[in-house]
Amino acid sequence: MAPKILSAFISPLPLPHHLTNLHSRAFTIHRSPPRPILCKSTPPHRPLVSPPELAGPEPEGTGAASPTRGDTFLLRQRSIEAARLAMEEVKPKYAEKRKEKREKLPKASSAVASCYGCGAPLQTSEMDAPGYVDPDTYQLKKKHHQLRTVLCRRCRLLSHGHMITAVGGNGGYSGGKQFVTAEELRDKLSHLRREKALIIKLVDIVDFNGSFLSRVRDLVGANPIILVVTKVDLLPKGSDLNCIGDWVVEATTKKKLNVLSVHLTSSKSLTGIAGVISEIQREKKGRDVYILGSANVGKSAFISALLRLMAEKDPIAAAATRYKPLESAVPGTTLGPIQIEAFPGGAKLYDTPGVHLHHRQAAIVHAEDLPALAPQNRLRGQKFPVTSSVEPSCLNGFSVFWGGLVRIDIIKVLPETNLTFYGPRGLQIHMVPTAKADSFYQENVGVLLTPPTGKDRALDWKGLEIERQLLIKFEDIDRPACDVAISGLGWIRVELVKKSLANAELALQETPKELHLLVHVPRPVEIFVRPPMPVGKAGAEWYQYQELTEKEEEVRPKWNF
Known about the structure:
By secondary structure, the protein is of the alpha/beta class. The protein has helices at 4-7, 69-102, 135-143, 153-159, 182-187, 217-220, 241-254, 273-283, 299-310, 315-320, 437-444, 455-460, 504-510, 536-542, 550-555, and strands spanning 197-204, 225-230, 261-264, 288-293, 338-340, 349-351, 382-385, 398-402, 406-412, 417-422, 429-433, 466-473, 482-486, 490-496, 514-521, 527-530, 558-560. Helix 8 packs across helix 9 (299-310). The longest helix has 34 residues, at 69-102.
């Protein structure tokens, strides 16, 4: 008789009809002893899956109490789901904190269209305010989805030569509803600290100290910086750019600003622009590129030159040249971030509002006088010999006026001392005895001493309120003593001309080796005393390169032009 355990699983098959009448003994089925069939089961009193608080991998084994693979899989999935639910309860708290921490200002508003020339949001209500567009024009462009091609009324006037400032406290305007403040423009750059970006920092070579933005790390955080020096085409003829580049790197190192490289450029002649493009392509690495600098340093002109050169090989940059930021001599032309589609692959180029520095001359003169502060041609040093035709004792007691913006009182000088003025050619130089300097200034400011231009503006002019005493030492008669840089204007080289001295070394031993000056400027213009910039043909002769160790040479940024 077949075992009972087999009868539960094997049912007898029906025999064919012709075999149904055979004797049961004549038909024998030989069966091998059955092998026991093992099955995994879960007893009824045990739950299929443990509760989440007890969930976890259980030991595998055999027997009636062992979990099946399906049970183990379900148990693991329940554990994962329980952990996910627990994290979702905690995640909103951390997500909210991260959101507050990483909350940043928009790069360029996508909800409100902006003027492509200055970045100001387009509006149709305030005609005197930036961003104003005629209502009919606005509706027509909006209907055809062409608001990105709109130039506001202020930009149109600027493009026709009008000098219209829009930043309160600059250009002779105290402010108002049609003006934005310098603080508001600076706030628009605050998100750069939390942005992964490549920073192109621009500095004006004519106003190197005044436009440098020493605390630029407060704006850009730890983002890499490429330093671009603009307007090198304005340097005196014969200037050696190798000497200029080394001088710039040395000055940058002293300011403790770590940069990737230094580029000497000219947006007018395109000098050095190709090197900047190569550096950007090498260091961009998918990040957005921001052009940063002080107001009126030449950011928009630099972007135009950049796009012009890139357009020769890149159709994307060629398309971007149609709607490029507006160039103007007015500080504060750009009033908001302007997004430019200049690179393939998604990275963007941004023109940013200029950082307004209150210590520059452009912040205090009237808007109509701003062109007088912007050199258009190569600088030509105006030498002012502190007369050598009289006795050295008679050199003291004279004052030199540089336009209506600077007055230098010569208190004590060495014989054969020269002052060479590098700045706008329109500012005339006048010398009078110091005893008559005050009355001379009052009578001629606005007429002979300009800017300010005109008696009406001279009435509102507060004068030269800041005085700074300078003690300048001559350490080497073979090179100038120093530069006295006036923020936003230019610089004055102080040097000793030894050609007519029979024995220069003996003369220096017999006279005091220092020069005592008193410099007057408007409030709050700053005065910088710096090592002389090696401009002109003579600069390459007396300039001395710094001696560096191998380690210093490795970490020192390289200059390019």
